[in-house]
């Protein structure tokens, strides 16, 4: 299946490239929903399971299957769980930018977004980390986010959804690779549940999830797509879910034509691939004449 594929393109001869990404949100998305949730010990400890139990387990699983991954860590999480950050670094995986507070960029002015972006870089910088990529909190970047990513010298973003292969975004500060995620390849929609704040209401069977993701990999092998998987250690760090993820990875490896890559290496390959679509973002403007003001 790989024989007629271009070895020099972003897939480097693989039928499908898979990126395993772990967003170590911990308490940050709950606090972004309301500072009052800091008083809810159940909600806070539910989230703390990610850095405390989920990450070490995930690191062991990645060691077992000998595949690389990318960990997107908000600044506040890095500050609260420094040992977890060191564990990820010691394991040799990539650490990338995932905002400071996990507040969404669309709820902020551009100045506030820039301040949050900058603070996250300082938080990771204290560990000697100079992230090469960014993922917007809740995958809600502003139209200017890629400009920030380029201005600060990062190589890629992973938040936009208008493709299932990498593409290149040209900004006045330089070109960044976009590595598109999707809600269907996110464990949040499958597993997230809290009574308050409502982060999800259904707890899916990990067996169903494994089936769904393996089916997607097989389809993507035919279509030459990017399997950008997003998992959260507070969710996928639970035992049954982690074993389903292991099954997905082992099944992909058995196929023989799926290559696992960090986002950083994938971005490098994408930036060097002249065949990829490149251009500036094309923001949507909604006419007040055509659409009501709400
Ligand atoms: Zn997140």
UniProtKB/TrEMBL annotation:
<dbReference type="InterPro" id="IPR011330">
    <property type="entry name" value="Glyco_hydro/deAcase_b/a-brl"/>
</dbReference>
<feature type="domain" description="NodB homology">
    <location>
        <begin position="40"/>
        <end position="261"/>
    </location>
</feature>
<dbReference type="Pfam" id="PF01522">
    <property type="entry name" value="Polysacc_deac_1"/>
</dbReference>
<protein>
    <submittedName>
        <fullName>Peptidoglycan/xylan/chitin deacetylase (PgdA/CDA1 family)</fullName>
    </submittedName>
</protein>
<dbReference type="InterPro" id="IPR002509">
    <property type="entry name" value="NODB_dom"/>
</dbReference>
<dbReference type="InterPro" id="IPR037950">
    <property type="entry name" value="PgdA-like"/>
</dbReference>
């Amino acid at each position: 299946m790989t024989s007629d594929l271009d070895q020099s393109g972003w897939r480097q001869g693989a039928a499908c490239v898979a990126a395993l990404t772990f967003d170590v949100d911990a308490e940050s998305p709950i606090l972004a929903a309301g500072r009052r949730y800091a008083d809810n010990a159940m909600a806070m400890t539910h989230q703390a399971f990610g850095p405390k139990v989920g990450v070490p387990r995930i690191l062991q699983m990645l060691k077992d299957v000998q595949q690389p991954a990318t960990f997107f860590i908000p600044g506040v999480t890095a500050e609260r769980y420094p040992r977890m950050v060191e564990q990820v670094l010691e394991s040799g995986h990539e650490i990338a930018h995932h905002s400071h507070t996990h507040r969404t960029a669309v709820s902020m002015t551009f100045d506030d977004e820039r301040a949050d972006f900058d603070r996250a870089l300082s938080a990771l910088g204290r560990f000697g980390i100079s992230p090469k990529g960014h993922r917007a909190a809740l995958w809600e970047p502003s139209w200017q986010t890629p400009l920030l990513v380029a201005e600060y010298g990062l190589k890629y973003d992973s938040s936009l959804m208008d493709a299932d292969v990498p593409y290149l975004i040209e900004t006045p500060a330089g070109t960044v690779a976009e590595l598109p995620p999707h809600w269907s390849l996110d464990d949040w929609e499958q597993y997230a549940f809290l009574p308050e704040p409502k982060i999800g209401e259904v707890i899916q069977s990990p067996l169903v999830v494994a089936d769904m993701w393996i089916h997607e990999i097989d389809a993507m092998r035919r279509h030459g797509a990017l399997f950008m998987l997003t998992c959260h250690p507070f969710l996928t760090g639970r035992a049954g879910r982690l074993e389903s993820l292991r099954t997905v990875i082992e099944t992909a490896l058995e196929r023989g034509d799926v290559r696992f890559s960090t986002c950083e290496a994938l971005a490098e390959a994408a930036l060097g691939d002249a065949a990829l679509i490149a251009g500036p973002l094309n923001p949507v403007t909604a006419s007040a004449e055509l659409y009501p003001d709400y």
